[in-house]
Amino acid sequence: MDWTDHAIILAARKHGENNAIVHLLTRTRGRHAGLVRGGSGRRLRGVLQPGNEVAATWRARLEEHLGHLTVELEHARAAPLLEDPLRLAALTSACALCEVALPEREPHLAAYDGFDALLVALDDDQPDWPQHYVHWELTLLADLGFGLDFSACAATGSTTDLVYVSPKSGRAVSASAGAPYRDRLLPLPAFLLRQPAGVPFDRLEIRRGLQLTGFFLAEHVLRPQNIAVPAARYRLVDRFGAETH
Amino acid sequence: MVGPEIERLIQILARLPGLGPRSARRAVLHLLKRRETVLVPLMAALEGVANAVRVCSTCGNLDTTDPCAVCNDLRRDPNVICVVEDVADLWALERAGVFRGRFHVLGGTLSALEGVGPDDLRIATLVARVKSGGVKEVILAMNATVDGQTTAHYVTDRLVEFGVTVSRLAHGVPVGGELDYLDEGTLSAAMKARRPV
Questions:
Q1: What pTM value is reported for the model?
Q2: pLDDT of B2-12, one tens digit each?
Q3: Which residues of chain A are within 8 Å of residue B177 when distances are taken between CB atoms?
Q4: Which of A121, B27, B185, B193 is the most exposed place for a label (fewest CB within 10 A)?
Q5: Which chain B residue has its CA at the smallest distance from A97's CA?
């Protein structure tokens, strides 16, 4: 059996002298691994960098086999980011999160499309790419069944002045309703209430956004599976705390 | 067909890079046919290396002395340290003869998938070398890969407080490379790093 699909390289691990076991996020088949012959060689090493978009063909005798992959580069997304520590940290964090959070061979179209849009934003160095990143983590949570709801206050139903998120329900809470419990609520950055609109990002707001999504990723997605939050994501959060942009 | 000792030698040789079971068998046959001229000297050389080689406590290079020959060479510039991922990279730079400073071998790169963190690499010893003074420039000669450059940025962050110049190798068109055959990532890096002629 075989299939061909668009895919994003998540990771490539050397296997033997010349081959590599490559992990992909495919558009219609979710996270998928396969053996790439010559994947550790000079010709393919550059193609198999995390974040690169490829046309992948997978072949195996049986569905449950690891199978062989052949890949053809469609967009080299990794190379333009190598010199920018912040954008590179976002790329590695997103790849690492997909690796640990998404189940294998289960389609997650929204997560793929969001990742694809994030890669375009990173590649183009759009001023609001960090907002794209946090929105993508929200999409990832929603795609995994842990969507957060910022449409109205969980306590009063109000749709204005939403500044907190309940760590239990994942729903927004207004300033007035949340005031008595503010120590226990998570701050809701304003940019998460609308889609990215090309506005340059505020570092503190992005950090708060990452703390918010990080909490739900850790508590609901990773901890139940006894998986630690990837170090790459911690490094991204640290960079938003340490650098000026 | 052959005795267990010979079979064991074939199996061990087959694990070496570039060798498989068939080529290992050929190598063993060659060794056995030239016992005095190849096998015995090889045994002596292997034993000598196994007994004498150690990791340089200063730079992480492999040599028979500690500090290694590179660190002991007084003609080399102690003010410049070239940071590489692996001993193979150090040897490649030495073969090219393009660098006359000191080296530092990290022993790998940060890798989310492999679970390699900063504590698994020789980053702390690099920081200690720079902190001890006398270093003016650190050249980051990491591979042009996501993991390599992630590590380079991390090392840069760790060194920023010491006020040393941190540089990295250029990325772009290799010597003998034809533009038509280059991937778009390399072309993009080369275009970004263009310079006036």
A1: 0.88
A2: 889 999 999 99
A3: none
A4: B193
A5: B112
